[in-house]
Specification:
6-stranded antiparallel β-sheet; binds glycine; D-amino Acid Aminotransferase, Chain A, domain 1; 4 domains; Rossmann fold; 12 helices; Dna Ligase, domain 1; 410 residues; 5-stranded parallel β-sheet; binds adenosine monophosphate; alpha+beta
Length: 410
């Protein structure tokens, strides 16, 4: 088979690696990819949002299967265009991807299909949102509608923070904002491979959303992850599948927008059971780097089975994976482009490129999150030690990382 992967980050680097390891696959292409993927895929210079050029490339090169990484490509309707042309694609349509692209849509669906989540209200103007805020207790959560790369959410501990977030959101007059109740508990990510009602949940991971150690600072796309998560046992996974994932898939069919692709649920394990924090319509990043590196079953054969509405039992590496993100100095406010990075040869961990480029043969930063360093070992502690010893070998003046990835489970 020839497989095309759409996207340019660490998640797509991982997808490309897994696809390249498949016995079914002869050739892997990534558009637009990044320099780090060149040893597992051919890099194609087409933007991930240029839907027509991507579809023409797939047609002209007889691509057998396309896999989509980023939410922004889904929101551009890449799956719709491929399906229209009869091209096989593992991704949700633009309509189905609203489960991620609109917080308001997601909350409405959850309410309609009794999917456990926190109470909420949606607002289209500052005044009404401030009046509602006055009726609520703290902490409170403010979410801007629309795609924000993990950065449009404020968990406000103080009222002033909530007011600030609302004023910021409504400085763009067309914005909608969801205000929702705070959920207290242990957060985890579960991703399932889905097609209609066919579902294969993958092993669980835990992301670290805040930029600094001890969960301080702004929310980011994710600063590190590990898998499996011992605290989330089989019963909790079954509960999450039965109460959150399956009802969502049924609901989407009922709404005439059946979901095909990677369904991601951010879940809070509360005293009152599992509750949905958010849905994403794609694989998580850096969850992909930690989950897929443990999958032993042929990844492409799993996707093909699910597209054929068959489930398969998955075989997992019993070792623990842990991934640490190395980010540009001012991430998530801004990113540093063009700072040199030196990766020495004596590194045991796997390195996934999230935002890098090559300039005159030198590896450089090219985004907010730059590298994800992933190690596997027989215990989480050993995986952590291995990864951090390698992270410290990577030289760059402009990169930082969290020091406490995995600590919630250690
Ligand atoms: P989201 O983009 O909706 O996943 O929000 C980003 C992060 O904010 C989540 O991963 C949580 O850590 C936190 N968060 C979002 N909603 C809530 C909530 N209702 N209660 C507590 N924390 C939340
Ligand atoms: N790491 C969480 C996400 O991909 O949204």
């Amino acid at each position: 088979m020839k497989v095309l992967i759409i996207g340019r980050g660490g998640r797509e680097h991982t997808l490309a690696l897994k696809v390249s390891q498949s016995e079914l696959v002869k050739e892997v292409f990534v558009a637009p990819g990044n320099v780090g993927m060149a040893d597992v895929a051919s890099i194609i210079n087409i933007d991930e949002h240029d839907v027509l050029s991507l579809a023409c490339f797939a047609e002209d090169n007889s691509i057998d299967l396309t896999i989509v990484g980023p939410e922004s490509s889904l929101a551009c309707g890449v799956a719709d265009e491929f399906i229209k042309r009869g091209l096989k694609i593992f991704a949700p349509t633009k309509n189905a991807a609203q489960i991620e692209s609109s917080k308001d849509f997601a909350k409405k669906i959850m309410a309609k299909y009794n999917i456990p989540t926190s109470d909420y209200k949606t607002f289209d103007n500052l005044n009404d949102s401030l009046l509602y805020l006055n009726t609520k207790t703290l902490p409170i959560v403010i979410k801007e509608d629309g795609l924000k790369a993990g950065k449009g959410v404020t968990v406000a501990m103080k009222k002033e923070e909530a007011i600030d977030a609302l004023e910021r959101a409504f400085s763009e007059p067309s914005n909608k904002v969801v205000i929702e109740d705070y959920l207290d508990g242990f957060e985890f990510s579960i991703i399932a491979i889905c097609n209609g009602e066919t579902i294969i949940p993958l092993e669980v991971a835990q992301d670290h959303k805040r930029v600094f150690d001890n969960d301080l600072g702004a929310n980011t796309g994710g600063m590190g992850a590990y898998s499996p998560v011992e605290k989330i046992d089989e019963k909790i996974v079954k509960d999450t599948t039965d109460k959150i994932l399956k009802p969502l898939l049924k609901g989407m069919i009922n709404e005439n927008m059946p979901f095909t692709g990677f369904l991601f649920a951010g879940v809070m394990l509360t005293n009152d059971g599992v509750k949905t924090i958010e849905f994403n319509a794609r694989f998580g990043d850096p969850e992909a780097e930690c989950i897929l590196t443990r999958l032993k079953t042929d990844f492409v054969s799993v996707l093909l089975s699910v597209l054929d509405n068959k489930t398969v039992a998955l075989d997992w590496d019993s070792r623990y994976s842990l991934g640490v993100v190395m980010a540009s100095e001012n991430y998530p406010e801004s990113s540093t482009i063009g700072a040199d990075i030196e990766i020495p040869d004596n590194i045991d961990s796997m390195i996934f490129h999230m935002g890098t480029k090559s300039e005159n043969g030198r590896l450089q930063t090219n985004g907010g999150r730059v590298l994800c360093v992933v190690g596997l070992d027989s215990s989480l502690q050993k995986a952590k030690e291995k990864v951090y010893s390698d992270v410290k070998k990577i030289k760059s003046d402009k990169l930082f990382f969290r020091n406490d990835i995995g600590d919630k489970m250690l």
